[in-house]
C-alpha cells in the first residue's frame, strides 16, 4: 500500500464482487494496482485489483496468505481470479489500523517499537521447514533480471545468513496493523513471503521508519526486535531492496 487513489471508474469486477455494497478506494500502489473496501464494519471485505505485471502476482499472494493464516493473523482469502488484463484478490477485513495512519503516525515512540516486536513475533511464528517459498538474494536478483532490471547489487556480496526465518517480504510500516493497546495485531501484503535471512526483513522495516516517521527510528525498531544492529547486513539488504 502506497498512496491515496485519484478519482476513477472502478473495473467491472469490483462492482460484481461488491454485490451492492458500498465501494471505497483505499490505496493505489506503484504498479497501478488499487485496493478497494467493499462494505463497512465487521462484514467489510477488501479487493486488490492489479493489472497483470511480472513484478507482482496476486495469485501468489493468495497462496501465501492461505498458508500464513495457519500460524498468524492475516487476511482470510475469500475469492481470487483473473482475466486478460488484470487479476484480483478478495479478502476478509482483519482487526487493526495501519501503522501509518493516526494515531500511530503521530506516536512513533509507541508505534516503532511495536513494529519491531510484531516483526519478531511473525518470524517466531512461521515455520521455516514447512514454508514452500524462498526469498533469498539469489531469488530476488534472478527475478529482477528477468524483468530487465540492470542491478548494481550482486549475490556474491550477500552476507552469510545470520538466522533463516520466513520473511514477510515487504515489511514496510503500512503492512502492519495495530490494535488499540498499541501492538501489532495482523499482517497484510504477504505476496513475497518466503524463507530468507531475518535481516532481509529487519533492514526494510527499519528503512521504512525513515519514510513514515522521520529520522532516528531505525535503531529503536531493531532494538525492539531483540537484536543488536548489524550495519553490514542492514546496508546490503537495504541496497537490495532499492535495486529490485
Automatic annotation (TrEMBL):
The active site is at residue 170. It comes from the Bacteria. GO terms for biological process: response to antibiotic. Mg(2+) binds at residues 175, 189. SUPFAM superfamilies: Protein kinase-like (PK-like). Signal peptide: none annotated. One of its GO terms (molecular function) is kinase activity. InterPro entries: Aminoglycoside_PTrfase, Kan/Strep_kinase, Kinase-like_dom_sf. Residues 35-235 form the Aminoglycoside phosphotransferase domain. Pfam families: APH. Keywords: Antibiotic resistance, ATP-binding, Kinase, Magnesium, Metal-binding, Nucleotide-binding, Transferase. Belongs to the aminoglycoside phosphotransferase family. This is Aminoglycoside phosphotransferase domain-containing protein. It comes from Gordonia aichiensis NBRC 108223.
Amino acid at each position: 500500500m502506497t498512496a491515496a487513489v485519484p478519482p476513477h471508474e472502478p473495473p467491472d469486477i469490483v462492482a460484481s464482487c461488491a454485490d451492492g455494497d458500498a465501494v471505497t478506494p483505499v490505496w493505489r500502489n506503484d504498479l497501478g494496482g488499487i485496493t478497494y473496501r467493499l462494505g463497512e464494519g465487521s462484514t467489510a471485505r477488501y479487493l486488490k485489483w492489479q493489472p497483470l505485471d511480472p513484478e507482482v502476482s496476486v495469485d501468489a499472494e493468495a497462496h501465501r496468505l492461505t498458508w500464513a493464516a495457519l500460524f498468524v493473523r492475516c487476511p482470510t482469502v475469500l475469492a481470487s481470479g483473473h482475466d486478460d488484463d488484470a487479476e484480483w484478490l478478495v479478502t476478509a477485513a482483519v482487526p487493526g489500523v495501519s501503522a501509518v495512519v493516526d494515531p500511530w503516525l503521530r506516536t512513533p515512540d509507541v508505534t516503532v517499537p511495536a513494529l519491531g516486536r510484531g516483526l519478531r513475533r511473525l518470524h517466531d511464528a512461521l515455520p521455516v521447514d514447512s514454508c514452500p517459498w524462498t526469498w533469498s538474494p539469489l531469488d530476488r536478483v534472478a527475478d529482477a533480471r528477468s524483468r530487465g532490471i540492470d542491478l548494481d547489487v550482486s549475490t556474491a556480496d550477500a552476507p552469510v545468513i545470520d538466522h533463516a526465518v520466513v520473511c514477510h517480504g515487504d515489511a514496510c510500516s503500512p503492512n502492519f496493523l495495530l490494535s488499540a493497546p498499541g501492538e501489532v495485531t495482523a499482517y497484510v501484503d504477504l505476496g513475497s513471503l518466503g524463507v530468507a535471512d531475518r535481516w532481509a526483513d529487519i533492514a526494510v522495516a527499519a528503512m521504512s521508519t525513515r519514510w513514515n516517521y522521520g529520522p532516528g527510528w531505525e535503531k529503536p525498531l531493531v532494538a525492539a526486535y531483540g537484536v543488536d544492529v548489524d550495519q553490514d547486513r542492514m546496508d546490503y539488504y537495504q541496497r537490495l531492496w532499492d535495486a529490485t
